[in-house]
């Protein structure tokens, strides 16, 4: 899997470099500040691709004494660095656009600029869709994030092509810096989103989609001996997850029986996360009389209360650190 990730990101890096050369060629032909904005963003694609290569290399390294959870967290540094560079590029684009508003300049050879930017947009569209699709299959937040960034580049380039066509037929050169400002704002927004994603990952912010996926798996394969699940916490390390939780089991189970129940939970969730490895740290809680009314173990020899109804596991009762009763 690591070799495939590395191959995918190398393709992205090479294509992004060639497209950057093409966009700067278009800028030198036309002297369009909007095309310059597009070219500056493409430089970020190249640098981000290089970061992603190093990130995937580190992620593939085995765990060691200093990194007991592996090196997967580096992916969040990678998308954070990419987000920061995109944000800086957006600021530079806005600064350059303001300069063009104040000064005077002449656009040249707009037709060739349209064809060049149009061709790079088509190639970027194919590359972005490929990266997003493959990143979700693996899954890899580095590859997916890179693909989403390139798709943003595609949308801004499409707007640029339309603007260049309008300028070519109307002569409205003032539209060039206006489009550049719009692109700069779009790029700033994307940079903020990547920075937000990076910070949330580094701060171990709860991913509710992962929580919901785990809960759904446990609900579908629930055993009567699993009386409740609570105090669930999820941390992501690259493609892998570390999950802590408490499971309430009948207090009279032998140690080997309790161990088998916990291993069954781990096996089920790993099967549900086919492209990732899920490591569980499960704390087994003994049941209490208060648990009897929702315990589904009908042949329990020590039941104190009648069964009153099943409690479906949800975020509301799985995340807090308390038994459901």
Automatic annotation (TrEMBL):
Residues annotated as domain Cation efflux protein transmembrane: 9-203
UniProt GO BP: intracellular zinc ion homeostasis
Topology versus the membrane: Multi-pass membrane protein
One term under GO cellular component: plasma membrane
GO MF: cadmium ion transmembrane transporter activity; ferrous iron transmembrane transporter activity; zinc efflux antiporter activity
Pfam families the record matches: Cation_efflux (PF01545), ZT_dimer (PF16916)
Annotated protein name in UniProt: Cation diffusion facilitator family transporter
Organism: Chitinophaga rupis
């Amino acid at each position: 899997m690591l070799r495939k990730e590395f191959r995918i990101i190398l393709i992205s890096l090479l294509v992004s470099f060639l497209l950057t050369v093409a966009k700067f060629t278009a800028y030198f032909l036309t002297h369009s500040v909007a095309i310059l904005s597009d070219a500056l963003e493409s430089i970020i694609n190249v640098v981000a691709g290089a970061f992603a290569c190093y990130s995937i290399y580190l992620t593939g390294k085995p765990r060691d004494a200093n990194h007991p959870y592996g090196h997967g967290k580096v992916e969040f540094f990678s998308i954070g660095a990419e987000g920061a560079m995109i944000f800086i590029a957006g600021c530079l684009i806005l600064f350059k656009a303001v300069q063009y508003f104040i000064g005077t300049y002449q656009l040249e050879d707009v037709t060739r600029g349209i064809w060049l930017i149009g061709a790079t947009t088509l190639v970027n569209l194919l590359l972005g869709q490929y990266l997003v699709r493959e990143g979700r299959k693996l899954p890899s937040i580095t590859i997916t994030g890179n693909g989403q960034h390139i798709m943003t580049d595609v949308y801004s380039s499409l707007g640029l092509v339309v603007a260049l066509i309008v300028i070519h037929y109307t002569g409205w050169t003032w539209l060039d810096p206006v489009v550049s400002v719009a692109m700069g704002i779009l790029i700033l927004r994307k940079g903020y989103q990547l920075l937000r994603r990076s910070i949330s990952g580094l701060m171990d912010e709860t991913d509710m989609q992962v929580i919901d996926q785990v809960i759904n798996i446990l609900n579908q394969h629930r055993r009567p001996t699993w009386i409740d699940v609570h105090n669930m916490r999820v941390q992501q390390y690259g493609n892998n997850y570390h999950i802590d939780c408490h499971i309430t089991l009948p207090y009279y189970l032998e140690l080997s029986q309790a161990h088998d129940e916990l291993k069954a939970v781990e096996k089920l969730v790993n099967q549900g996360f086919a492209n990732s490895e899920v490591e569980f740290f499960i704390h087994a809680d003994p049941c209490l009389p208060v648990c009897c009314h929702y315990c589904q173990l009908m042949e329990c020899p020590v039941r104190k209360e009648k069964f009153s109804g099943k409690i479906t596991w949800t975020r509301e009762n799985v995340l807090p650190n308390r038994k459901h009763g």
